Fold this sequence. Notes:
Mean pLDDT: 96
Bound molecules: uridine-5'-diphosphate
Helix content: 25-40%
Low-confidence stretches: 350-355
Amino acid sequence: MNKRVLVIDRRPHIGGNAYDYYNEAGVLIHRYGPHIFHTNSQRIVDYLSRFTEWRPYEHRVLGQVDGHLVPIPINRTTLSVLYGQNFTEEGAARFLAERAEPVASIRTSEDVVVNQIGRELYEKFFRGYTRKQWGLDPSQLDKSVTSRVPTRTNDDDRYFGDTFQMMPLHGYTRMFERMLAHPNIKVMVNTDYREIKEDIDYDHLIYCGPIDEFFDFRFGKLPYRSLRFRHETLQQEQFQPVGVVNYPSEDVAYTRISEYKHLTGQKHPCTSITYEFPSAEGDPYYPIPRPENAELYKRYQALADQTPGVSFVGRLGTYKYYNMDQVVGQALTLYKRLQEAAASGAEPPRQALRA
Ligand code: UDP
């Protein structure tokens, strides 16, 4: 399309929440918590591969439960350790089936787990973690939230089941820098787009911020969940056996600890870790999936549909709990639409993008 592009970010850096950097000790860390790339889409891998090489990485998570460190998602090993017996796959499946409490209509994040594995395991693994993470009981959240985490009866201890699981070899920030390294692209950080939007001439605005803020909260605020991060660097090579350890118990305020060297493969005499403390205050990180919020979002979406020259994308722009690959897919789809509109000489698409 040969368009000229100005990328504007309120923050002092590019890359949004996927921003990573070398800290004072020289360890590559993620400022906004662990970002792990996984997708089933060849198209998305192909696109990103124009800007990065990859490091194969299969994410593994352990949970601190009843004094044990066990695989999450729950698998055969998890059950064997917790219940002190050596389950076969069939035995594990039977065990879960006996405990499952059928729920007639599965709507919430509680229903979906209790229906599958029963209340005891639900309480050990999901209830406390979810209450901390969202400030809501799982019964108040859509089933889509806890459905992100499967249950297995085999020995697969990978967090994700996707075909492609890997990390950008030199980090996310480097990948974004290469994406932006083009004579038609200019970058402006430390800037709220509203500070300059009257001063520049543009055809089309692609907005990735919170949609309710764009419309000055006309219908009220859309709720988002935030996180506070405690980053630490330790004078030891390794802190924990895997990239992420979850703490589902409500006895500690954090939900998980991430150790980046597992993700990045970096060799370094020190290691850096991050504790995540969920919070109502702070930058918006997660839209909160529940019916009343979806209703409110729909009103903003209708407004977006009637706002010419603006496209809304991303977790905040479309109020969807998207993974990174889904956001890339959404962006590529928007690009295609804009390209088609430009080719046909039509106005750019007016409606907010629906993935
Ligand atoms: N979850 C949980 N216990 C866990 C892991 C996840 O209850 O040990 C629930 C929790 O509600 C969480 C959701 O599943 O918010 C999705 O987990 P995921 O790891 O996908 O969250 P993200 O990495 O996006 O924060």
